[in-house]
């Protein structure tokens, strides 16, 4: 059975809805699901659905009200408002749990935008903030963006399950970057597994040092680029375990939030593509591992005070993959080697550099 999420042009909202629907359908049918990006829509295919399974318990288990992601999704809401909105998400998901797969298809085919719907939270998609969708001529008379309650709940669930919020910078103004991987062709079996693939743990006292983490960077682009490299390495490991490349991601969407006086506002947003990183895995997974290790080291070393130029150069290269960005990164890396700020043991092999150059655009 196939489900479809028609895209609206709100990239984060659309991707989060796809992840949320995949989670609901997978738990509802107790079956593997395959998510594919068709260009105009995301499709979710159910494999070997157990249609006799009913009841909300497997779905509501997906919603962890203590997950810190909820505080970022509803970042403009008070604590009490946030609690009520999480409760509303649970009610919508419970309603979907008590319907058949065919009825779920009918529900998601309804119009996404409605004047009586739920307000799209700015912490989920920057399009939810006033003044970013059209000109307001110095007056904030733009109305709230309201969406269908079921689509709203699916998007909130998808962002809570698969999104990551990371603090960035070191200035006095609090800044946060939101990250969400975009599935190109991904098969979901267990949601604990897919969360390990799409999310990054925040650095907390209870976080194991063995878990891969994103470095605290001065720029959001550096965080997004490092996330792309680490996601590619996770995909490579899964490909090695399965004997073939089973999961493909096209991009990582990201946007920044900053606090201006008492309100949070959106800053820059973009996407970092994973096509070259994925091509490396397909071409030679062993060499790809060396490339990913070297690039990730550049980000980790570049997160230290005084070495941020290395992380910014690595980010520029991952975004552009051209001669100029590679030349800048290579020169900076060599400079750090010469001054003993980077040990010779961290120098990439000739084979790794050769593999990198294969994908550099002239």
What does this structure look like?
With 362 residues, this protein is an alpha+beta fold. It is 46% helix and 19% strand. The protein is built from 13 helices and nine strands. It has helices spanning 11-29, 57-60, 69-73, 79-97, 101-108, 149-162, 191-198, 220-242, 275-283, 285-302, 308-320, 323-338, 350-358; strands at 2-6, 32-37, 41-47, 113-119, 146-147, 164-168, 175-188, 248-260, 263-273. Strands 1, 2, 3, 6, 7, 8 and 9 form a seven-stranded antiparallel beta sheet that branches. Strands 4-5 form a two-stranded antiparallel ribbon. Strand 8 and strand 9 form a beta hairpin. Helix 8 packs antiparallel against helix 10, helix 9 (275-283) packs across helix 10 (285-302) and helix 11 packs antiparallel against helix 12 (323-338). It is globular. 39% of the residues are buried. Residues 136-141 and 204-210 have low confidence and may be disordered.
List the helices and strands and how they pair.
Blueprint: E1 2-6, H1 11-29, E2 32-37, E3 41-47, H2 57-60, H3 69-73, H4 79-97, H5 101-108, E4 113-119, E5 146-147, H6 149-162, E6 164-168, E7 175-188, H7 191-198, H8 220-242, E8 248-260, E9 263-273, H9 275-283, H10 285-302, H11 308-320, H12 323-338, H13 350-358
Antiparallel strand pairs: 1-3, 2-3, 2-7, 4-5, 6-7, 7-8, 8-9
